[in-house]
Amino acid sequence: xxxxxxxxxxxxxxxxxxxxxxxxxxxxxxxxxxxxxxxxxxxxxxxxxxxxxxxxxx
Length: 58
Prior knowledge:
- By secondary structure, the chain is mainly alpha-helical.
- The chain has helices spanning 7-20, 25-32, 36-45; strands spanning 50-51, 56-57.
- A two-stranded antiparallel sheet has the order 1-2.
């Protein structure tokens, strides 16, 4: 499934996946075949950064 393009919908989608299915962003990236660096850049451009302690973008 392609990731949503809208940054707010992408944020919600990614944080839900991290909360419900994956213990880390690396695990999610492997399972979904995602470029994690690209994902982080997209969300950083919208003002969000990954917090590994919370396992979510804030």
